[in-house]
Structure formats: C-alpha cells, structure tokens
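wait is this the right file?? whatever heres the structure
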C-alpha cells in the first residue's frame, strides 16, 4: 500500500511567523515507516518526494500517486534509496538488488515496477528520495566500498563525523538527485556546522540511529531568523533553499541528506559562520 501527503512551499517572511506547531506541520515528517506500507510526502520544494518503505511480512509495491499524473511512479522521475534497517531486497523491473544497512540504490527514469521486501527477521527500512528527471540513467547500487568517504570535524568542536557520498555525480549519473549519509562519532553531536544555505537546491534531512530517549534539535530558517525542531529517530525534515540546515543531538546519531534543484555541485553553498547566526 502506498500512502501520500502534500506540502506547499513557504515564503521565508511568512515562515518567521510560524509557531512550534506550524513549523512542525509544514516541515517535519514524523511517520515514514509503517508496517507493510510505503509513505510519501510530495513537496513543492523542487518537487522532491520524501518517503519510507517498511516491508515486514509482505512485499510492497511503489505505486504512482495522483500528483504525478503518470501511469507509473518513475515515468518522469528518478529515485534514490538508502536502507537504514535489516537486509532487504529491491526489485527493479525484475532485477534484484540486495541492500544491507547504509547501502544505497539509484533507479533511473522510466522504470515501470519497483517492489520492496525484507530478507531477514529484522525488517528493512528503505528511505526514499525522488526528484523529477529529464532522461534515463542506469540503475546502480552503491556500497561503502565505492562511496566517496570524507572525514570531517574535530572532537574539540563536538562535530567529528564521517561523510559518505553515495548518490552523487562523482559516483553515479543522475539528473538532479544527490544523496549521502553522515555518521557522528561517539561523543560528537553537531552536524553541518558551520551551517550554510544553497539557493539553487533544496535539501531534506533524515535522522536515524538516534538512541531511545534521545533527541536531535534540527536548526532551520533564515540565518538571521533561525528556528528549531526537536526530532526523534527515523524522522525527516524539509529544508528550503533559503534555510540553513544544521543539528545537534543529545547523543551521537546518523543522518541522510538528500538534495534536488538546479545543479549537481556539492560545494555550491553559502557558508554562515557560527557567530553570525541569530
């Protein structure tokens, strides 16, 4: 079963007036993983779709949704998948891909059928990002062996982390979708600091491996008018192109970043120094 919801884009001047409940309503995605369901959020930010597939004891199929006005989900889209649960299988027009935790799969435009199933007692949790596409690129599985891995940060600033570039243009050809996974090392809590914006791309963050009873404070908004959202394990948040995206947890955690927009240049960002944030 495929379920879906819709999010409008927000003007930064309007977003300054949002209270806690409105901020959470507009940007937070709380329940992506439900037994034997696919749950999708269609966003007007670069028309990115964020979702989760959780096959427990059934195979679940990615179905088209009314907003797409297409016979198949991927008729005019590309799809990125990163597994954050137990081992699972993704079938792409009959071709089988096994994904272990923290492995990724890119699926190009034009694929007719995508299904998901778990292959162990621990359910797979397939996190999904999809963006509009203008041509087909080959499907490709990405593991840590062929990822681009960057070590960042320092214990002194509590942001020592491992950045795993998975679905990026240096590894796999895409139209506009870019995805990766960052792991905070024990004793470190800050991600993406100094923070930044990038006016030609939006971004979505998905927080996982957040220990029970712990939280992550996700910071967003105009650099001079910031806001925060407290998030729990396996929750995602939309980040407009005008917004910073940064976070600090009450313990270490991992997160997936996904981007869509006008360019594929990972380094195209406007840095905001920590002492300039308001």
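ok assuming it is, sequence goes like this
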């Amino acid at each position: 079963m495929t379920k879906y919801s819709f999010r409008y884009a927000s003007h930064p001047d309007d977003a300054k007036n949002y209270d806690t409940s409105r901020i959470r309503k507009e940007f937070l995605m709380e329940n992506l993983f439900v037994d034997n369901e696919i749950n999708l959020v269609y966003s007007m930010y670069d028309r990115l779709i964020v979702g989760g597939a959780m096959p427990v004891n059934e195979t679940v199929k990615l179905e088209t949704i009314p907003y797409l006005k297409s016979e198949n989900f991927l008729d005019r889209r590309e799809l990125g998948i990163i597994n954050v649960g137990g081992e699972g299988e993704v079938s792409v027009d009959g071709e089988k891909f096994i994904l272990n935790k923290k492995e990724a799969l890119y699926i190009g435009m034009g694929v007719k059928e995508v299904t998901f199933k778990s292959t162990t007692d621990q359910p797979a949790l397939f996190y999904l990002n999809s963006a509009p596409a203008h041509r087909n690129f080959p499907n490709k599985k990405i593991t840590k062996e062929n990822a681009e891995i960057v070590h960042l940060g320092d214990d002194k600033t509590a942001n020592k982390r491992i950045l795993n570039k998975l679905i990026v243009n240096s590894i796999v050809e895409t139209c506009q979708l870019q995805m990766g996974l960052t792991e905070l090392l024990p004793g470190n809590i800050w991600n993406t600091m100094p923070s930044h914006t990038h006016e030609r791309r939006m971004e979505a963050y998905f927080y996982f491996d957040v220990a029970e009873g712990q939280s992550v404070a996700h910071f967003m908004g105009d650099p001079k008018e910031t806001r925060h959202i407290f998030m729990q394990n396996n929750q995602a948040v939309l980040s407009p192109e005008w917004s910073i995206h940064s976070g600090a947890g009450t313990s270490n955690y991992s997160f997936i970043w996904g981007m869509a927009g006008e360019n594929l240049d990972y380094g195209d960002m406007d840095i905001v120094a920590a002492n300039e944030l308001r």
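Residues 137 and 174 are 6 Å apart (CA to CA). so i think its the right one actually
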